[in-house]
Write a structure and sequence with these properties.
By secondary structure, the chain is an alpha+beta fold. Strands 14, 15, 16, 17, 18 and 19 form a 6-stranded antiparallel beta sheet that branches. It has a 4-stranded mixed beta sheet with strand order 3-4-6-5.
């Protein structure tokens, strides 16, 4: 298990390496080129009020001799399909793979849309159309649906349904499927909920609620979706061997928590915020102890990770305040370095061990993929810490300039971030870090840097933002060669300089209350990501210890791993962009700030998103290992987490209160999803066992979810995510034994 959601992070299932066997072992669906035409519903605002309509989408599959997955998006007007629409196509592709166990590398998949459309609400329709194309079925021309597709195939809530029904009726539709729990939805013009069944009946349209992809498929095609069912419904159980391994890791986390508790006690009186976190940590530790006494080691592990994150946060608050009070700017930097250096050393050592470990079985490969995934998440956390420290340094330098007495070189106009020893003033631009000015006689001027240049890479590493670029230049030891890839007037070039010794640091500046608060916040966040990275590396060790050496099917070849990794990596990037567009961008616009600024604020509220973004940053900026598991593990991890975030904030409409707590959510759909997910997980685990496979991590997920689903809303959301992961894990394992064999293209129903 492995999730941290505002203090709760369960050991994530090592299903990554398992997915590739669906590509290896499942028989190909020998279907010819096929196209399925469907009408995707939409709604929008016009001068006379809200309106609904439908856009024709043609989903196609055709044989592909290139041996790699190809997914294309076609439109008849420039920008006709938006970012979230394309992400829905990728999610449909992944769901088709997880549902049928098909080797998608044998196909070229296309989504062709007429007119302009965007948004995630056609996810269920696109998935159904793609499955129909692969299976050789047809979709009723007089029927359609609206609803987001979740990772386990459940259909999630969407908006504007009354107006979509109007559009469907105008298009001649007789059946419209809507997400379960949304019979009553808000009519934007009337500003009140209306009965969708009555709305449809008045327009000659049957409106029917659906929970799952299987219901959608049967209603739209008239054919059952080929999902095998197990015999019976036994309660999932963890084997004694796995229990023993997990118990050892739980005891290790207990020791870590006890050490942190001793530091908190020694700190004496805490401020109100730290006292609150310390109390939460103590309660989580108590619940972990109770679960451990009952032999529920998966539950105990989950509670202990919660306690550890909270306790680490308290200790950080104590230590970072002391470091700044006693040592000022230098003390703060030394404190961060005392955390960063051992974390970097631990990361390097872990990657080396993983690289030297050979997977003999599929279970071994799954454990390695999970270990690499956690290591990548930790590496991303280190990068986020570095970015935050760079921003802190910018504020400190600005304060120094404002407090400087006597003659000296003037600060650049506006005091923009990015001015440092290299001699440039830089800002974040649309296409990268842009040079605003170059100081006379500086390294930058001697290297040939000009105003307007875009700083693309430093020594082969992509420059993420102006603050980080400054920090990299500041930290370069004297004598280091700096090779800067620069964009200038449509071409690129490499400019070279050699770092010089930095001048003696000025006296610590006198800070205003506002500046001190901003610097303190960035210092705390930089330290927090370092402590999170250290914890993630320990949890990575747990993954390998629990999942390695369980025996079973042999490990697959590297080529199959790469194929599976590419599918999930591309899909993960699409889903992260989807989340940014659907959730974050709107909130950023409402707050009147850029997406980049709002993202930091959101990460402070939702640790699950912070960890997803850290993985995204690391995947796009680092290359930790050449092992195929090093790409597969984090890619699957990112896809799963980003998908859960979309369900949480878009589909279920979660709203955050103070301190990142959930203050509201769509409860009826959440309970429905939980009930269905619980049954689906039991069936999937039973199906895997029925086919001779013990889905260890799926069972651990199930055990933890059973406890969490009885808790508050936040715990229910975490339980739902665990159950989704468990279902995917168990079904993939079953597919390895032929338990999820896809049916070849079949004749049309009579």
């Amino acid at each position: 298990m492995r999730r941290m959601q505002v203090g709760a992070q369960l050991l994530r299932v090592a299903l990554c390496a398992l997915s590739l066997m669906g590509m290896l072992g499942a028989p190909a669906i020998a279907a010819p080129a096929r196209e399925i035409s469907v009408d995707a519903l939409w709604y929008g605002m016009r001068a006379d009020g809200p309106t609904g309509g439908a856009s024709t989408v043609i989903v196609g599959v055709e044989p592909n001799s290139r041996g790699s997955l190809r997914v294309g998006f076609y439109e008849d007007v420039a920008g006709g399909s938006g970012t979230t629409w394309r992400a829905s196509g990728w999610m449909a592709t992944v769901l088709a793979y997880l549902t049928l166990g098909v080797d998608l590398s044998q196909y070229r998949i296309s989504f062709d849309v007429a007119g302009q459309i965007d948004g995630p609400s056609a996810g269920g329709l696109l998935t159904t159309a793609l499955l129909a194309a692969l299976l050789g079925d047809t979709v009723r021309p007089d029927a359609t649906m609206t609803g987001i597709i979740n990772p386990d195939g459940t259909i999630g809530p969407v908006g504007g349904i009354p107006h979509k029904i109007d559009g469907a009726a105008a298009r001649g539709k007789k059946l419209v499927l809507v997400p379960y729990g949304q019979r009553f939805d808000v009519d934007i013009k009337l500003k009140r909920p209306v009965d969708l069944v009555e709305r449809g009946r008045a327009r000659g349209v049957e409106v029917r609620e659906v929970r799952h992809l299987a219901e959608v498929y049967a209603a739209l095609t008239g054919r059952p979706l080929p999902l095998p069912k197990p015999t019976g419904d036994p309660q999932p159980e963890v084997s004694s061997a796995v229990q023993s391994k997990l118990r050892d890791r739980v005891q290790g986390l207990f020791r870590r928590c006890q050490g942190l508790a001793a530091k908190i006690k020694a700190a004496g009186q805490l401020d109100e915020a730290l006292q609150g976190m310390a109390g939460q940590a103590a309660r989580s530790l108590t619940m972990a102890d109770q679960a451990f006494g009952q032999g529920l080691f998966a539950v105990a592990y989950d509670r202990l990770v919660t306690a550890t994150v909270l306790a680490e946060s308290v200790v950080l608050g104590v230590e970072v305040g002391r470091a700044f009070r006693e040592g000022g700017e230098g003390g703060a930097r030394r404190y961060l370095e005392s955390l960063r250096k051992p974390a970097n050393t631990k990361l390097d050592a872990l990657i080396k061990r993983l690289d030297q470990t050979r997977a003999q079985t599929l279970a071994d490969g799954a454990a390695l993929a999970e270990g690499y995934g956690m290591a990548t998440e930790a590496a991303g956390s280190l990068l986020l810490s570095q970015m935050r420290e760079g921003e802190m340094n910018v504020l400190l330098k600005q304060a120094t300039e404002q407090n400087r007495q006597g003659p000296g070189p003037a600060a650049p106009a506006g005091g923009a971030p990015g001015r440092q020893q290299f001699g440039t003033e830089t800002v974040d631009g649309q296409h990268g870090v842009v040079v605003k000015s170059v100081g006379r006689g500086t390294l930058a001027e001697r290297a040939g840097v000009r105003p307007g240049d875009v700083m693309l890479q430093l020594n082969g590493v992509t420059v993420p933002n102006a603050a980080t670029f400054q920090q990299w230049m500041d930290n370069a030891p004297a004598g280091t060669q700096l090779n800067v890839l620069v964009g200038r007037e449509g071409r690129t070039m490499v400019l070279t300089a050699v770092a010089e010794a930095a001048p003696a640091p000025p006296a610590a500046p006198a800070l205003s209350a506002k500046a001190a608060e901003q610097i303190g916040q960035k210092l705390y966040e930089a330290g927090f990501f370092l402590r999170v990275a250290d914890l993630l590396l320990d949890l990575a060790e747990d993954r390998v210890a629990v999942g390695f050496g369980l025996g079973g099917a042999p490990a697959p070849p590297a080529a199959a791993l790469q194929k599976s990794a590419q599918l999930f990596r591309t899909s993960a990037d699409a889903v992260m962009n989807y989340f940014d567009g659907v959730v974050l961008q709107g909130q950023a616009t409402e707050a009147g700030v850029s997406l980049a600024i709002f993202r930091w604020a959101f990460m402070a509220q939702d640790l699950e998103y912070a960890l997803a973004y850290s993985t995204y940053v690391a995947l796009n900026q680092l290359s930790l290992s050449a092992s195929p598991y090093a790409k597969l593990g984090p890619s699957m991890m990112l896809y799963s987490t980003a998908s859960s975030l979309i369900a949480k904030y878009y589909s279920l409409g979660a709203e955050l209160g103070e301190g990142g707590t959930i203050k509201s959510v769509k409860e009826k759909p959440l309970i429905s999803m939980l009930d269905f997910a619980l049954q689906n997980t039991r069936e999937s685990i039973a199906l895997a066992k029925q086919n001779g496979v013990d889905p260890v991590f799926a069972t651990l997920y199930y055990e933890a979810a059973q406890s969490l689903r009885e808790g508050a809303v936040e715990e229910k959301l975490t339980a739902l995510a665990y159950l989704w992961q468990a279902t995917a894990h168990a079904r993939l394992l079953a597919s390895l034994t032929g338990g999820l064999r896809a049916t070849p293209a079949r004749p049309a129903a009579r």
